[in-house]
Specification:
- The complex is a heterodimer.
- Chain A is built from ten helices and 23 strands.
- Chain A is an alpha+beta fold.
- In chain A, the strands form five sheets. In chain A, strands 15-16-19-23-22-21-20 form a seven-stranded antiparallel beta sheet.
- Helix content of chain B is 46%, strand content 15%.
- Chain B is an alpha+beta fold.
- Chain B is elongated.
- Classes of the chains: A alpha+beta, B alpha+beta.
């Protein structure tokens, strides 16, 4: 069962990306049952017939939807697709639209290589600029140039109060470039065990609907389509509209800008500070968290900081804890945000004992492509000699060492720099390797890998690894020290 | 005392031997050398003149080789060309592409060489047994699952490879020197393999024991050097006459085999080696290095940060002129 949860998480991450993916890949998914449903709806042959309200809502609001296309300038072709919706039209001053950050992430990071084009339900295309991003909640505000001679855009109203669980809501968007559609479902409350608030929508969302609105029966926006879980049926996620409202407040007067990396980097730092604060808080009773907040965070001059503090799902906790693995005490993660799963020797035909324990904090933030930040995981592998001769046991490769260190750099990450030494733990001697690599495109964000292999017993070997993805140096340093100090 | 003139192959084999005819006291005994059929020694070499040279032997026991005004002349040693060479040793002379040698029966010869046909096969067999023994040990170390590895296939494959390797040099030796010396080559191959594994294991133990990084960093050059030394022994045995030339090639290949991975590492990652940690596990009793206290070790991340930040800055300076990342199209 814990394994199944893990699979679900991974699929969710992949889908997160797919939601704004290129069409060719999306087409490849058409044969999945969920996508077939989307095709049926788009072709207006769905059975049973849509409820009267869905039909009315769609015909009334479809003009307020757009397809957001991010085009690669050099090829003049789309590189990612999503949906968006109009929230304000000031006539000669243009219109403002909401979508997801992940739909426009490639443009936000390489503004000179991409441009945004909006395709409403009518035939025309409209140029748009990015005016605000909220990486933490995965939102972005676009500003469309006023088109001379065209009628003003009708706009969506944002709902003030939160919906109640069980309320019928409707999600709109353009999945897989098949055409605009409406998808009916039920609001099922806030998602548990997620670091930032998200709404659970029991309705169909498909790739390309990202950034579309989810509306109530009155046509008011309650959330923004963001992701779906491939592991479950009709398990979709929405960003509550209040974060969109906060972002919009800041974007009316926002001057046009081309450079977003600093702002994205700032938000990533805020995020990792928040995650690290949670871990350090639980561990050190609040003192370290205060330190984390004092860590230098470049503030946008004049702009209000996007603070996750208000955005926390009540009661989510995370922290280091001690757990027992085959009789040994090992540092693991604790709290409602973390997921742990264990692996025994079942299915493996080994002549020695191999027990493993993995814990991870589900707090990663999508940056672009395959790049995520702000997540943390701990892995322990304990080997015990059963029937082997000592040289044979010693010759067993330690999992998590060597192969896991990707040393070469790429366009996102610098090459890994590592150092190792024998270190005395509380009860055992370890060989610990620390590896560090920096995000090239963002200031002060690093990946840490701390891998400790027990070296003082020829019959038992514990390998404990901590993976820190996308943390500031200070927080990474603090977390890895905390991990190492907890090694027995 | 009599004189002989010999036409020799580049490898030293005598192709023709012509005695210098005796002449009455005051006169010179003369041998004519050239491409024309009226010579005493006929050389079928297009780079020789029809009448290329003549050898004159005086009654006083001196001999000289005289160039008859040819284009390519007579060259002694590497590049000593002269119209007339006084003969003082059995050093070969080059006429066109042909080598000739002049010898006198009065000169002393090298002493009789003892037969040194030591039987190599017992030694080769011992080497093979040692190599296979080591191979079996390595296989046994990995034999940690319910299902054992295929010992017989792996070991016989190893033996076959070593024999194939030795056969290659034996055939080469047969072609250029006329002898194969298969078992000697097998001894060399086995010794090379054993030396390499011994050295690598020693380096691993050293790294583990002292917590030194350099032994694991130099493994690649060490393998190249041991391989080069093994090939050196093979080549000297198989083709001793060309060893002077072959060794230059061997050194060049070895230097490149060491330098190219280092250079590529430098080009890709701006460092000379990607070995940064010791991933060696030996018996705990072998560890001599003292463990660092946890507090001291925690500080190492700061040193890594400096390096990583430098790499990041370097990228900034380069500016990204490259194409679009592939992940934009996923």
């Amino acid at each position: 069962m814990p394994r199944a949860l893990f699979v679900c998480l991974v699929v969710f991450c992949m889908n997160f990306h797919l939601a704004g993916a290129q069409q060719s890949k999306a087409q490849g998914d058409v044969h999945s049952p969920a996508a077939n449903a989307a095709v049926a709806k788009a072709a207006q042959v769905a059975l049973p017939a849509p409820s009267a309200s869905a039909r009315d809502l769609f015909s009334r609001y479809k003009d307020r939807l757009v397809q957001v296309r991010v085009l690669l300038n050099s090829a003049n072709e789309q590189s990612s697709l999503g949906s968006g919706f109009v929230v304000r039209d000031d006539g000669p001053r243009g219109a403002w639209l909401l979508t997801n950050y992940h739909v426009v992430s490639s443009l936000a990071i390489d503004p000179e290589k991409f441009r945004i084009e909006l395709r409403p339900t009518s035939e025309r295309t409209v140029k748009a600029n990015l005016v605000a991003v909220d990486v933490i909640h995965d939102l972005a505000v676009l500003h469309a140039e006023p088109a001379p001679g065209s009628s003003p855009w009708p706009v969506f109203a944002l709902r003030d109060g939160a919906p109640v669980q069980g309320e019928r809501i409707f999600s709109l968007g353009n999945p897989l470039e098949l055409g605009f559609l409406i998808s009916e479902g039920i609001y099922n409350g806030l998602v548990e065990s997620r670091i930032y608030e998200q709404m659970l929508f029991s309705g169909a969302l498909n790739a390309g609907m990202s950034g579309g609105p989810a509306i109530d029966e009155g046509g008011r926006v309650v959330g923004v389509n963001v992701a779906t879980s491939r592991g479950g049926e009709l398990l979709s996620f929405l960003v509550p509209v209040r974060y969109a409202r906060d972002l919009l407040e800041r974007s009316w007067q926002a001057p046009p800008r081309k450079e977003w990396r600093t702002e994205i980097g700032r938000q990533l730092l805020v995020h990792q500070n928040f995650v690290a604060g949670k871990l350090l808080d639980v561990a050190d009773g609040g003192t370290a968290a205060a330190g984390a907040e004092n860590a230098p965070v470049p503030k946008k001059p004049g702009g209000a900081a996007i603070g996750p503090a208000s955005a926390v799902v009540a009661g989510v906790k995370a922290g280091f804890a001690s757990q027992t693995l085959a009789g040994r005490s090992v540092p693991t993660l604790d709290g409602s945000l973390t997921k742990c799963w264990a692996g025994g020797r079942d299915g493996e035909r080994l002549r020695y004992q191999r027990d493993s324990l993995n814990c991870s904090l589900r707090s990663e933030l999508f940056v672009r492509g395959n790049l995520y930040t702000g997540s943390l995981s701990v892995q322990h592998v304990l080997l015990r000699n059963d029937k082997l001769a000592t040289p044979q046991f010693l010759a067993i490769e330690s999992f998590g060492r060597g192969a896991s260190f990707f040393l070469g750099g790429n366009r996102e990450m610098t090459p890994n720099e590592c150092r190792d030494d024998y270190v005395r733990g509380a009860a055992h001697v370890y060989r610990i390797a620390i590896c560090l690599t920096a995000f090239r495109k963002f200031e002060d964000i690093y990946n840490f890998t701390v891998s400790a292999t027990q070296m003082d017993d020829a019959h038992e070997r514990l390998t404990s690894t901590l993976y820190l993805n996308g943390f500031s140096f200070d927080n990474g340093q603090r977390l890895s020290r905390m991990f190492m100090e907890r090694l027995q | 005392m009599s004189w002989f003139i010999e036409h020799i192959h580049r490898d030293g084999t005598v192709l023709a031997r012509v005695p210098v005819p005796a002449a009455p006291a005051p006169e010179l005994a003369v041998v004519h050398i050239g491409r024309a059929l009226d010579n005493d020694l006929v050389l079928d070499d297009p780079h020789c003149a029809a009448h290329h040279a003549q050898l004159e032997v005086g009654a006083d026991g001196t001999a000289r080789l005289i160039d008859l005004g040819t284009r390519n002349g007579i060259v002694a040693g590497r590049n000593r060309r002269a119209a007339m060479h006084e003969i003082s040793s059995d050093e070969p002379y080059r006429l066109g592409q042909t080598l000739i040698r002049v010898r006198s029966s009065a000169w002393s010869l090298a002493p009789e060489r003892e037969l040194s046909q030591r039987a190599m096969w017992p030694l080769a067999l011992l080497g093979l047994v040692l190599v296979l023994g080591y191979g079996a040990w390595e296989l046994w170390l990995g034999d940690v699952q319910e299902k054992s590895p295929q010992y017989l296939y792996a070991l016989s494959g190893m033996a076959a490879l070593l024999c194939l390797w030795s056969t290659m040099y034996a055939v080469f030796g047969r072609l250029v020197s006329g002898v194969d010396r298969f078992f000697s080559h097998l001894v060399i191959a086995c010794s090379g393999y054993l030396a390499a594994t011994l050295l690598l294991n020693l380096l691993d133990v050293l790294a583990f024991s002292m917590s030194w990084l350099w032994p694991v960093r130099i493994t690649q050059p060490v393998i190249v050097i041991v391989t080069a030394l093994t090939v050196r022994q093979h080549l000297r045995l198989a083709d001793p006459r060309h060893w002077r030339t072959l060794r230059v090639g061997l050194v060049i290949v070895a230097v490149f085999a060491i330098a190219i991975p280092i250079a590529q590492q430098w080009v890709s990652n701006k460092r000379l080696t990607d070995v940064q940690t010791i991933n060696v596990i030996e018996h705990p009793a072998l560890r001599l290095a003292r463990p660092t206290p946890m507090q001291d070790f925690s500080a190492t991340a700061a040193a890594l940060k400096a390096k990583v930040d430098k790499a990041r800055k370097h990228e900034d300076d380069d500016s990204d002129g490259a194409g679009i990342d592939s992940d934009d199209f996923e």
